[in-house]
Each structure stands twice: as C-alpha cells, then as structure tokens.
# Entry
Amino acid sequence: MNKLGIAPITHDRVSIDVADAATGVFVSVVGDIDMQDPSKLLDPFFLKLHQAALKEGTPAIEVDFRRLAFLNSSGIKALAKWAMLLAVVPTEKRYKLRFLHNKGLTWQATSLPTLTFLVPGAITLA
# Structure
C-alpha cells in the first residue's frame, strides 16, 4: 500500500495504480477508458487522491498516461474537474501535477496540454 492509502483500481479495460515516489506519489493509468460515464470511476478516485495528498502534504503527483490508449471526452472532463479542485487550494499548499504523456496518441497530444492552462504553474507535461 502506498503512503496515501489509495487502493488500486481495475475496471473494465483500465487499471490505475498509485505508488510512492521520491517526490510524492506516482499514478499509473493503463488500458483504455471509453465507458459511457467514466466520471463514476474517476471522480471518486481523483477526489480521494486529492484529499489524501493535501492531508499528507504531498509535494507532487506524477500521472503516467503513456499506456492509456484512449480516454473519452467524459474522462477528460473528470481530469479537468480534478485540476479545478487544485485551483481552489492556496498556492503554498498545492501539490504539483505532472502528466507523462505519449505525443503519438491523438487524445493525449490534443487534450492534456489544454489542462495545463486550468491551474497555471501547477500542472506540467512530460
């Protein structure tokens, strides 16, 4: 179990795992998310991750999307909602979000860069 106490998720064709990292936590998202309403899966997960990171003073969360072949628009909306949770946290208490992405996957190349504008300085891509 990771230091935030977040359990892994396996649902349909996606698996999400959270592991401890030197700079905070590392989230790995593998598979594809094209279910009709991924917010039912993603919103509670991101909220729990967000709350635990703030409680523990986690400096950074790195999310690896490189092996997520597809995320539909409802799933991208869930990511945006997570980012907006971070937007209301005072700057000095925010954790940094770093999205690892595969520029060869259209959804990642077009959607993830847009998320960096939601909370300037808090979200980066690699």
Notes: The chain has three helices and six strands.
